[in-house]
Amino acid sequence: MTSAVKDEKAPELRGFREVQSLAYACAEAVAARLEPGVTEREAARMQRDWLRERGVRDWFHLPFAWFGDRTAFAGFKVPLQFFPTNRKLEPGMPFILDMAPVYKGYTADIGYSGCLGLNPLHDKLLADLEVHRELILREARERRSLREIYEDVERLMIKQGYANRHRAYPFGVIAHKVDRVAERRWSPNVFGFGTQSLKGLMSDALHGHRDGWSPLWSPYRFSDHPPQPGLWAVEPHLGFRGTGAKFEEILVVTDSKDPEQSAFWLDDDLPHVRRWAEERVAA
Amino acid sequence: MNLGSLPGARERRVRTGGIELCVVELGDEQRPTVVLVHGYPDSKEVWTEVAKQLADQWHVVLYDVRGHGRSTAPKPLRGGFTLEKLTDDFLAVADAVSPDRPVHLVGHDWGSVQSWEFVTVKRTEGRIASFTSMSGPSLDHFGHWIKQRMTRPTPRRVGQLLGQGAKSWYVYMLHTPVLPELAWRGPLSKRWPKMLERLEKIPAGDYPTPSLPDDAAHGAWLYRDNVRARLSRPRTDAYAHVPVQLITPTGDIFLSEKLYDQLELWAPQLVRRTLDAKHWVPRTRPDQLAAWISEFVAANEAAKEDGRPVQDTAPTGAYADRFGGRLVLVTGAAGGIGRATAFAFAEAGARVVAVDRDAEGAARTAEMARLIGAPAAWGEAVDVSDEQAMEKLAEKVAAEYGIVDVLVNNAGIGLSGSFLDTTSEDWKNVLDVNLWGVIHGCRIFGRQMAERGQGGHIVNTASAAAYQPSRALPAYSTSKAAVLMLSECLRAELAERSIGVSAICPGIVNTNITATTHFAGADAAEEKRLRKRTSRLYGLRNYPPERVADAILKAVVRNQAVVPVTPEARGARLLSRFSPGALRGIARLKPPL
After folding, report:
1. Is the preceding omega at residue B155 within 30 degrees of 0, hence cis?
2. How far apart are CA B337 and CA B506, in angstroms?
3. Which of residues 217-256 of A touch B (CB under 8 A)?
4. What residues form DSSP beta bridges with A263?
């Protein structure tokens, strides 16, 4: 990956792009099927089944679904609260679908925010995520330290009036590295995380520790280094009282000297990006 | 009625059941009709101020209840005031003023008691569109309320019974024959206006009218004809067939708030409001009543069109009953505690004016406030230390949005560093914002509130540093101590005008103040390091500004004087009272920076 550039010369990027769009297609398909009364567990199962039918056998993590004020992680203290509950979807409620399938040895980790019917507040949150996507890319290209970018994202959120909800994630991360995953016949899950992907993350952590970088993008000292070349699943998550919204997609970082090539979003043809473009046209 | 006090009023007489009712109309007859029913011992003039304000938007109708004001009395009086006959009167008035459209009903005191009858009996169905009730329960509901408490007397229920029993002393008095009439026709009616002025702070005007002795004497039969009969044998089918808005004054000396527990059972479409006031709210809080009545009528008219129940559109935040539709001004609203406070009020349905030096931030707060429930919100860019700018703001707010009901003087800046390092320029800056900002706010907006004479509340954000000395914050602590004392003095002065004043002392809260604090005696690099470090420490403490905002709303509702918020602020407050020496000892410690 270290010399990948943004064109079709990098066949492995195509693999990642493929699984990422598969995951977003799944999110859109499931979101279209959500209706009042569906529970988080049912929504998570719908995602799992949809992807299994299309050949997904392993996961970085199993699909999640959060409804209502759980999208803002209100009162989340322990990681178990991440798991889908029997919360039912109601009209006007926001929801987030989050899944990380492994497909043909490639991983994606995506987050899809939507709401059932009209919710102007949720629309606002989603619209305000656009500047975060731009900020992260710009600062990654400027080779700022990950911790600095994290702090700038958080500052922007506070300026917008929001709370930074990825603080509630494990280690408070805004992103983590993703990589190819060896395909094994038997790949069990531990607490919803695929062991093969965790193994990759662990080995990254081990190597990174030796070289002074970390596969987790956090507000802590171990993220005080410029972005490491590779693929990062970035997930800025806004919370505002009982409403939350996020996107999650893959940022490609390379060691190219050309700023354009040094960092770019893996794919610009994603639901949230299309949505912003449509809004601009409408405005 | 002295029609001079109601410009454009049209009077007419309505004949029904052998008597003649005096009916007055205001406003455009094409608009939906709002009927105002007065209580005891009043006449329709009790509504003058409310009616005037409602007339801009609605067709307003007032009438003197039989035996009151310029309406004639039944003969004989006994048996002439039953709820059935009062219902006849109401229907006659409604048919006369709005023959082909249901009317919106508003009742105060006995007006509300009889209106409950109107909205729970079959024969008025289709003639009433909505009902706003204040200080008058349904006698049937009241009867069931008593029965419930008599049959299963838990200590709490017995307490409620005894409490309301004591408040109802005048009801027993009115049941004695002849004596009440003698008293009213004698000395009582002469003293009555003064008593009202002293107890209720009712401003003088066209109320009470000279007919008071007769009104009060006749009205005694309202009680005698109905109370005993209904309380002993309450109707079991007294369900309201229209949406009801219940306005409960919290300081009512005649009726306990507990009377309306479980009212949802009787009135399925219920919106609750509470008002920090005494019994005669139509006289003491006309602006608020007019606003709530108007809002409720409009919501019901709209609901008729799109079919959504009214109470579903009401805000649901904490204390929504108290702050719905009220005007709240918050300074320093572009971030931190100010912004969180603006949002908390917005969730409760208040209209919000967000003021800050940072125009963009203030506008953003206003925009988000609208998204979470504020019916309206505005951002204003003003520096609170600038007196002229504050004067201008006050003029603009009064002219465009109305008089502020709740003022939160929250804007403040941080200043750290030893006294010897603090320059006079530093002193000036911090006092200008932290102290003068509050003084300007209290002086300019507080005066508007006092002049309106309909109560209100002022919240000043002080700090735990106000009573906790520290070698690191001499100037900041001084400014905040002054704010605390100012608030307590002002509280004493404004109490007689029903304006509450609270000082909030948050303590260490995770806000942006640390990132802009000036550190006296430090060069730019050192200041940056110190800002970062304090921000990190405050971040580790991680006490969210939202909880301070909750404390502010609670302080307004309970009219608390001084409110320390975080545990450390409460601890320091306790120490400052019982062991100030210990605090002085702590003050000598160097802060861990």
Report:
1. no
2. 9
3. 240-241
4. A253
**Does A159 sit within 8 Å of B368, measured CB to CB?**
no
Write out residues 516-545 of B within 8 Å (CB-CB) of A. 544
DSSP-assigned states of every residue in A196-228:
HHHHHHHHHHHHHHHHT--SEE-SSGGG-SPPP
Is B301 exposed, middle or buried (CB count within 10 Å of its CB: 0-12, 13-18, 19+)? middle
| Pairing verdict, β B406-409 and B456-461 | parallel
CA distance A246 to A97: 10
Q: Please report, for residues B99, B208, B289, the alpha-carbon distance to residue B204 in angstroms, rounded to integers and kept in the order given.
A: 36, 9, 19
> Using CA atoms, how far apart are residues B540 and A82, in angstroms rounded to an integer?
23
Looking at the DSSP assignment, which residues form a beta bridge with residue A88? A39
A244 CB neighbours in chain B (<8 A) are none
Tell me if B459 sits within 8 A of B407, measured CB to CB: yes
- Other C-beta atoms lying within 10 Å of the C-beta of residue B192: 16
Task: Determine contact: A167 vs chain B, CB below 8 A.
Answer: no
Helix axes B359-371, B336-347, angle to 10 degrees: 30
- Interface check for B338 against chain A (CB to CB < 8 A): the answer is no
Phi first, then psi, for residue B331 (nearest 5°) are: -95, 155
Task: Name every chain B residue with its beta carbon within 8 A of the beta carbon of A241.
Answer: 343, 347, 372, 546
Q: Tell me how far apart the terminal alpha carbons of chain A are, to the nearest angstrom.
A: 39
- Bond before B208 cis per omega within 30 degrees: yes
The widest CA-to-CA distance across chain A, in whole angstroms, is 52
Report angle CA A153, A159, A164 to the nearest 5 degrees: 50
Q: What is the DSSP letter of A229?
A: S
Count the neighbouring beta carbons within 10 Å of the beta carbon of residue B517.
Answer: 19
Residue A140, exposed/middle/buried by CB under 10 A (0-12, 13-18, 19+)? buried
Cβ contact B371–A241 (<8 Å): no
**Chain B residue with minimum CA distance to A121:** B371
Tokens of B292: 């709530």
pLDDT tens by residue, chain B, 593 residues? 455 577 788 999 999 988 999 999 999 999 999 999 999 999 999 999 999 999 999 999 999 999 999 999 998 999 999 999 999 999 999 999 999 999 999 999 999 999 999 999 999 999 999 999 999 999 999 999 999 999 999 999 999 999 999 999 998 989 989 999 999 998 898 899 889 888 888 887 788 888 999 999 999 999 999 999 999 999 999 999 999 999 999 999 999 999 999 899 999 999 999 999 999 999 999 999 999 999 999 999 988 887 767 666 678 888 999 999 999 999 999 999 999 999 999 999 999 999 999 999 999 999 999 999 999 999 999 999 999 999 999 999 999 999 999 999 999 999 999 999 999 999 999 999 999 999 999 999 999 999 999 999 999 999 999 999 999 999 999 999 999 999 999 999 999 999 999 999 999 999 888 888 999 989 999 999 999 899 888 888 889 999 999 999 999 999 999 999 999 999 999 999 999 999 999 999 888 77
Q: How many angstroms separate the Cα of A11 from the Cα of each of A15, A149, A183, B360?
A: 7, 29, 18, 46
Establish if B347 touches chain A: CB-CB under 8 angstroms: yes
User: What proportions of chain A, in percent to the nearest 5, are helix, strand and coil?
Assistant: 45, 25, 35
The residues facing B519 across adjacent strands are B416
Q: Which residue has the tokens 């009730």?
A: B133
| Separation in Å, CA B391 to CA A46, B342, B395 | 60, 21, 6
ipTM for the complex shown: 0.88
B168/B160 Cα distance (integer angstroms): 12
